[in-house]
Each structure stands twice: as C-alpha cells, then as structure tokens.
TrEMBL record, chain A:
<feature type="region of interest" description="Disordered">
    <location>
        <begin position="290"/>
        <end position="323"/>
    </location>
</feature>
<feature type="compositionally biased region" description="Polar residues">
    <location>
        <begin position="296"/>
        <end position="310"/>
    </location>
</feature>
<protein>
    <submittedName>
        <fullName>TITAN-like protein isoform X4</fullName>
    </submittedName>
</protein>
<feature type="region of interest" description="Disordered">
    <location>
        <begin position="1"/>
        <end position="27"/>
    </location>
</feature>
<dbReference type="InterPro" id="IPR028015">
    <property type="entry name" value="CCDC84-like"/>
</dbReference>
<dbReference type="Pfam" id="PF14968">
    <property type="entry name" value="CCDC84"/>
</dbReference>
From TrEMBL, chain B:
<dbReference type="GO" id="GO:0000398">
    <property type="term" value="P:mRNA splicing, via spliceosome"/>
</dbReference>
<comment type="function">
    <text>Essential role in pre-mRNA splicing. Required in cell cycle progression for S/G(2) transition.</text>
</comment>
<protein>
    <recommendedName>
        <fullName>Thioredoxin-like protein 4B</fullName>
    </recommendedName>
</protein>
<comment type="similarity">
    <text>Belongs to the DIM1 family.</text>
</comment>
<keyword id="KW-0507">mRNA processing</keyword>
<dbReference type="GO" id="GO:0046540">
    <property type="term" value="C:U4/U6 x U5 tri-snRNP complex"/>
</dbReference>
<keyword id="KW-0539">Nucleus</keyword>
<comment type="subunit">
    <text>Homodimer. Interacts with the U5-102 kDa protein subunit of the spliceosome.</text>
</comment>
<keyword id="KW-0508">mRNA splicing</keyword>
C-alpha cells in the first residue's frame, strides 16, 4: 500500500512502513490511524484533512444529492399531503437514513412515510445529522434541508388526525382510493357507494355521465360493407357456391337457387345477422366455394362502387375532395391553389433562405430591411425613393481612428472645405499671352 | 469596351450596385482601361466571375469619370488598380500584411487567388467580422508603398 512520507526528518525509529496503526503523537499532525470515509467509501489515514480534498467534496455532494432527492420526492410530498398507507405499499416506502445509518421501515405505520417523517423530525436524527456533517464536512448551514422541523411535523400530525377522523366518520371513500381519483371523486362517489348493489348500472351511468366514447352501436359504412361482404362470403359457403349475384354470367353447376340467392343477398341488410336461408342447403364442393368467394368479393366491390358513386366518384386516393366540401367551394379552392402555389413556393424558398442565414452576419439588419424594401417596390406599394446624391456607404478609411460613422462625417466635412476651396479657385484670372518685359517696355515707350 | 466586365461610370450606378447586392460580396475594382495591370486584373476577374457568382458580384469602376471622384476621395484610392470589398453595404477590410487594410492594391497572380480572397471575405462577413486576414502567402500579394496622407 503506498504510504506518504511527507516528513523526511522523521526519526528512524518510527518508520511508517511498518507501524501503520500506531498513533503518531510526536509528529501528530501528519499521520493518524486509518479510518473509513463513508462518503467516498475509502480507507484513508489523512484524518481531518480528508474532508477538504476535492474528490471527497465531489463524492459528498453526490451522496447528499441522492438522499435529498429521495427526501424531496417522497417524504416532503407526503409531509404536505398525508395519505394513508396500504400494507402492500409499505415495502416500497422504506428509507435509509444515511446520517444515522438506520433503516426506516413502514410496516406498522398507518400513513405513508409516517415512520420516516417521525424519525426525521426527532432529536436523535438531528444529533446524527450534526455529527455526520461535522465528520464529513457537509456544511452546517444545510442542516435544515435534511430534517423536518418541529412545526412542520406538528402540522403533519394534525393533518393525519383529520384524515383519520374523516375516514372513521365514513365520508367519501375517495380517501381510501388514494390521490389518483381526486378529480373523479365527486362524480364517482355515488357510484362507489352503490357499487355493491348494481355493477351494471354503475357502468352505464358512468359511461353516460363521463362523456366517454361509447362503443359503436351502429355499423359505419365500412363496417356495413365488411359485414355484408362477410355475410356474403359466409352465405354461399354454407348454402350455395358460385352464386354470381348480379354478375349473372358465371353460374357454375346450374344452380337452382340462383334467383333465390340473389334475393337473399339483397335482403341481408334488412334482416341483419338473423338471416334465414330461403334456398336449399346444398353444400357444394371446394371449387364452388372458391368461386363463391370470388363472386362475393365482386358483390362487395359492387356495393362499394354503388356507394362511392353516391359520393361523387372519388376518394382520398384519387385526390377527390371530402364530401363535406360543396362543389362551389371546390372550384374556388382549385383556383386559389393554382394562384397561390407559385407565391407559396417562392415565399417558402425565401423563408428557408432567411432562416438559414446567420443573423449575426455583417449588415444583416440592413439586408433584411433592404429585402423588404425591394419586395414592396416589386409589388408597387412603395415608390422607389432615390437616395440622395450624397449617400455614401459605410467605409472605414485608411488613416481613421474612430468609428466608421466618424470617418463618413470627417469625409463630408473635408468635402465641404474642398468644395469651398474649389469655388474660390474657380475665379481665376483670365489667361493672357505672355508678353516679355522688353516688349512691354517697348509698348509703353511707344 | 467589350473586353471588360460591367464598368460603372456614375455615382448613382455605384450606389445602386452597393445597395442592391444583398448577402453577397461586392467586388469593386477601380482603375482605368489603359492600364495594363488593370486589364490583367480584369482578365482574371472575368474568368472567375461565374465561379464566385453564387456569393459574389464583380464590377469595375472607371476612375476617370467625374461623377465617381467622390468615391475615389472617400476610399482614398491613389494606386491603381484598387479593389474594395463590400458586404450588405458594409465595407470589408482585409489584412494582407500591407499597411492598407481597406482595399486590395494590384492584381491577382492567379484566378484561384482571387477566389480564395473572396471566399475569405465571405466567410468572415457571414460570421459577422468586418476585417479578415488574407489567405494568400505573402509572396503572392503585390507589394506597394503607401504614402502618408499629408505627404
């Protein structure tokens, strides 16, 4: 085991390699006997220094966090809302108090986490908590988060008493059921009370009152089709084969009951499941049955065709509009779609583009504004107003020291002075040909 | 001038060019058509215009026109050819190791150099940077002597 030997000046007598367990009183501070740190689960001989090590601090924070989460989630919840504890849930409500090294069982408590709450409020737990924090350095200011104060405990006790008295008085049974049915408590209380009397009544009343989805009592169109087709398939199989209802052409074996069968299939919807077989109960061989299947499928498709024809000759797959759209609306829709499609695509494309571009890019705000301006100009809503002749872009000059706005102002200022100078210069003297002095003097002399 | 790119001669044209180029780098090259280096630059630009067209627009400005003198003064253009970069009407600076970061002086040795420079500008602009460093090695950058303003 690696042992630190921080003091090289130690006397040879006390070699730490051999004398691990001796209390080193002479040197005192450096080495103590080994002890087990519950938090880091580590045997160390660093004594009181150990609690300040970063590893220990990390372990401690996770350790306390775990306990605190259990405390908050379970115990604190039941502290606020005391609930009676059922025996089957008692096994789940155990809590290990890490400070006292004590397992709290709930087998004999009437309320959820009752024993745990009692323990956490007790003086023994407080003592254990204090010693733990001193030993493992958790911070004495955090004590209150790991225990239940007396005031909270008394409040909890009062609530429990109230609950007990309520339960004894035989009020709503909702409390027995638990917190889950709180919402339904009012509506279901009457059912629960009469539960023993008549279950069916309760169910139906429940169903009606709670506005739940009632199972379909009438067949929908699809279902009726299916049921018809099923009946059709069933019918020929049992009674006749290859009836070819409505198709006429395929009538194998010269069925005597052909017309009767036709009558039969059409009469099925009226009669419902209790169909009578007006035909003789001949059972034909396998071939017949197979053909019958084909035909019956044909009949079902025919029926479906009939029904879709009623709907206007289209369905979802063919792209037809749903039947609740009137024809007029349909036309309007089509027109709008065709017009709007181009716009949609372009606008979508633009949206996609703007959403992808970095909003932090250079001149982003300016670009967005300019885009809007251009769009408006395209639409003709905004008349294009030309920027003044003096517009200058944002430019950082070569020898500038301030911001770019300053550079622009500087330039404009320079420009003005330059223009002034120019205008002054623009009154030049008229150009005259050069006359030499001699010429001049000659002229004057003359 | 068929052999040159779109050449701008008026301030208003330059303005509209700057203002209408949105989310793309605008490359403005100042020079005169009689200058051989300018023509060489134009040749390289012409070849690369299509390749950078998705993120850059290129235009030439004739410095001999009177209307544009304001810009020549504003941009401190003294050496020809000079190229100024804009993004969303904001001027983009590039540090090429020379004294003047506001413009690119001279021509590009290769087409790829030009594309690299424009790409660097675009990338910096998209990140929100107003000044970028030149991606080219120093031997590819034309050297010039910058005169102090009062000299």
């Amino acid at each position: 085991m690696p042992i630190q030997n921080p003091n090289p000046n130690k006397k040879k007598k006390k070699h730490s390699n051999q004398d691990d367990d001796e209390d080193d009183t002479v040197q005192g501070k450096q080495q103590t006997q080994f002890e087990f740190c519950k938090v880091c689960r580590l045997n160390h001989n660093q004594g009181r220094r150990h609690i300040y090590f970063p590893n220990h601090k990390k372990a401690l924070s996770s350790f306390l966090y775990r306990f605190q989460s259990k405390f908050k989630n379970d115990v604190a919840f039941y502290l606020k809302k005391p609930m009676p504890l059922r025996p089957e849930h008692a096994a789940l409500n155990r809590l290990w108090c890490v400070f006292c090294d004590f397992d709290i069982l709930e087998y004999d408590s009437s309320f959820a986490c009752g024993n745990a709450i009692a323990h956490l409020a007790s003086a023994e737990h407080l003592k254990g908590l204090k010693s733990f924090l001193w030993k493992y350095g958790g911070g004495m200011d955090r004590m209150d988060s790991f225990r239940i104060s007396e005031s909270d405990f008394t409040k909890w006790e009062k609530k429990c008493k109230l609950l007990k008295s309520e339960a004894a008085g035989g009020g709503s049974h909702g409390s027995l059921i638990g917190p889950l049915n709180d919402i339904h408590n009012e509506s279901k209380s009457e059912y629960v009370n009469s539960f023993d009397k008549n279950k069916l009544d309760c169910l139906t009343s429940d169903v009606k009152c709670s506005n739940s989805v009632v199972p379909l009592q009438d067949h929908t169109i699809e279902r009726s089709q299916i049921s018809h087709s099923k009946i059709c398939t069933v019918g020929p199989q049992i009674l006749h084969a290859g009836t070819g209802v409505g198709l006429g052409a395929r009538t194998p074996n010269g069925l005597p009951g052909f017309f009767g069968n036709q009558h039969y299939t059409h009469s099925v919807p009226k009669e419902g499941p209790a169909y009578s077989c007006p035909n003789d109960g001949k059972v034909y061989p396998y071939e017949g049955i197979a053909i019958g299947d084909g035909h019956s499928q044909g009949t079902s498709s025919e029926e479906s065709r009939l029904q879709t024809q009623e709907n206007g000759g289209g369905n979802v797959h063919s792209g037809a509009p749903p039947p609740w759209f009137s024809a007029a609306e349909k036309i309007q829709l089509d027109n709008k779609l065709n017009q709007g499609l181009g716009d949609l695509v372009s606008s979508l494309g633009e949206q996609m583009k703007t959403s992808k571009l970095n909003p932090k890019r250079v001149g982003a705000a300016w670009a967005e504004r300019r885009k809007i301006e251009l769009e408006l100009e395209k639409r003709g809503e905004l008349v294009r107003h030309d920027f003044g002749a003096d517009w200058l872009p944002n430019f950082g000059r070569v020898w500038q020291s301030g911001s770019r706005k300053d550079s622009r102002k500087e330039f404009l200022g320079e420009n003005k002075t330059w223009r002034k100078v120019d205008s002054q210069i623009e009154k030049p003297s008229q150009l005259q040909p050069y006359i030499s002095k001699r010429m001049r003097t000659e002229n004057t002399a003359e | 001038m068929n052999y040159l790119l779109t050449t701008l001669t008026k301030k208003q044209e330059v303005d509209s060019m700057i203002r209408d180029t949105i989310d793309k780098v605008l490359v403005l090259c100042f020079g005169r058509a009689s200058d051989s280096i300018f023509l060489q630059l134009d040749e390289i630009l012409y070849k690369s215009v299509r390749e950078v067209s998705k993120f850059a627009t290129v235009a030439l400005v004739d410095i001999d026109s009177d209307d544009v003198q304001v810009y020549i003064k504003y941009f401190d253009i003294t050496l020809i050819p000079s190229t100024v970069f804009f993004f969303n009407a904001h001027h983009m600076k590039m540090d090429c190791g020379s004294a003047d970061h506001t413009k690119w002086v001279g021509t590009f040795l290769r087409k790829q150099d030009f594309v690299d420079v424009v790409e660097a500008i675009y990338r910096g602009a998209m990140k929100g940077k107003l000044i970028v460093t030149c991606p080219l090695p120093p031997d590819r950058i034309p050297k010039f002597q910058l005169l102090y303003k009062d000299v």
